[in-house]
Design goal:
Elements: H1 3-50
């Protein structure tokens, strides 16, 4: 093949590969955005159904965290609520 034809074929091949890469990237971005929206909606639904924020994170020393909506009446010397 002549060098000009070879260069043209290589240029077209690179362009096609770039287009395929861009399409793939857009599809992945859409999938990630849908996952974020779904996770945010699910978190908001949990907050709405329970009347409080999502489950509290455990303490660093391994103790279980108290629920967010609870006020007093724990096991650490305070009076129990009924």
């Amino acid at each position: 093949m002549e060098p000009v034809i070879t260069a043209a074929v290589v240029t077209v091949a690179v362009s096609v590969i770039n287009v395929i890469g861009k399409i793939t990237q857009r599809r992945l971005n859409v999938s990630v955005e849908i996952a974020r929206i779904s996770e945010a909606a699910q978190t908001e639904r949990v907050r709405c159904l329970t009347g409080r924020s999502a489950a509290p994170a455990p303490h660093r020393d391994g103790r279980e965290a108290e629920p967010v909506g609870r006020s007093g009446g724990g096991k650490r010397g305070r009076r129990h609520q009924h």
